[in-house]
Write a structure and sequence with these properties.
By secondary structure, the chain is an alpha/beta fold. The protein has one domain: Alpha-Beta Barrel (TIM Barrel), CATH 3.20.20. The chain is built from eleven helices and twelve strands. The strands form two sheets. It has an eight-stranded parallel beta barrel, surrounded by seven helices. Helix 4 packs across helix 5. The radius of gyration is 20 Å and the shape is globular. The chain binds ligand PBG. Ligand PBG binds next to helix 6.
Length: about 325
């Protein structure tokens, strides 16, 4: 592999000048590599700061164009919608997820009506914003029920597709849900709606700030270890991905991002399909707070985002995606 040796070969020659460094760059990022998560909240004319995530906001539907206009102008291919649901609308079964007038449904309809196909919409399929216990599915004696939960997720997926959602993104980690959702969408005439499976989702401590953003952190009982993956494992990630590909996933997600670069690479090397990385809320808040406190300079953002590319990710979900002009230059 290595051809040549010192002193005939000096790798520093090609690093000497900026033009030369630019010439031999192996990886780069463009706005087309990013998905912007957007938090939604009920009410009027709000752009509400989120305590756990500096510079990230919850938007009311009437204010959505503030952020969507910008996303389109910056040529982001897709946004991901996440609702903050009021406590009084939550229950044990997460029934608000199936309300065709819920926040996510209203947001999809507005975006599709106003912007047509100028930007893609991706929606989480999972019950955690809607359940009073903060778990992604139905619960019975501390265990999340698999097959019973899938029945609800099928309907949540179909509802989102009917509203105009382009990419259904199950993040719940129930076994077999991709196949069941694919079949159900097809049967109901939505065979062109894409599925992005959160195939590899670890039971991570890095989700904390997000749970605050969607209002499930105070409510969450226990942890999610009986359905999300153990961070000690990597081969298990390959089993998850291979099942989801067979069941019909168009793309797969690895989540969180930075502590799991090895997994992104492993998945990409084993399966030649689009692999996305999620730079989750905890990663975002650590970097952002570090920068705000002058503990570290803002170059850490580009450096961590490039690492996803180097590992083989096709695209990255990032809360920094609305400020790329400050990051990519
Ligand atoms: C829930 C969901 C989570 C995130 C996205 N969808 C949290 C969880 O599983 O508890 C986390 C995203 C982030 O931390 O940025 N289905």
């Amino acid at each position: 592999m290595i051809t040549g040796k010192f002193p005939a070969l000096r790798l520093r020659r090609s690093r000497k000048n900026d033009w030369s460094r630019r010439l031999i760059q192996e990886n780069n990022l463009t706005p087309g590599d990013f998905i912007l998560p957007i938090f939604l909240i009920d009410g009027k004319n709000k752009k509400q700061p989120i305590k756990s995530m500096p510079d990230v906001y919850r938007y009311t539907i009437d204010n959505l164009s503030l952020v969507i206009d910008k996303a389109i102008k910056k040529k982001l291919p897709m946004v991901a919608l996440f609702p903050y649901i009021e406590k009084k609308k939550k229950n044990n079964f997460g029934t608000e997820a199936l309300n065709e007038d819920n926040l996510v449904c209203r947001a999809i309809q507005l975006i599709k009506k106003r912007y047509k196909d100028q930007i893609g919409i991706m929606c989480d399929v999972a019950l955690d914003p809607y359940t009073s216990h903060g778990h992604d599915g139905l619960i019975s004696s501390k265990i999340i029920l698999n097959d019973e939960t899938i029945e609800i997720l099928k309907n949540q997926s179909l509802l989102q597709a009917q509203m105009g959602c382009d990419v259904i993104a199950p993040s719940d980690m129930m076994d077999g849900r991709i196949g069941e959702i694919r079949k159900y969408l097809d049967k109901n005439g939505y065979n062109m709606t894409q599925i992005l499976s959160y195939a590899v989702k670890y039971a991570s401590n890095f989700y904390g700030p997000f749970r605050n953003a969607v209002g499930s952190n105070q409510l969450l009982k226990g942890d999610k270890k009986n359905y999300q993956m153990d961070f000690r494992n990597s081969h298990e990630a390959l089993r998850e991905v291979s099942l989801d590909i067979k069941e019909g996933a168009d793309m797969v997600m690895v989540k969180p991002g930075l502590p799991y670069l090895d997994i992104i690479k492993l998945v990409k090397e084993n399966f030649k399909i689009p692999v996305l990385a999620y730079q989750v809320s905890g990663e975002y808040s650590l970097l952002k707070n570090g920068i705000n406190k002058n503990l570290i300079n803002k170059g850490v953002v580009l450096e961590s985002l490039i690492s996803f590319k180097r590992a083989g990710a096709n695209a990255i979900v990032s809360y920094f995606a609305d400020r790329l002009d400050q990051i990519l230059d």
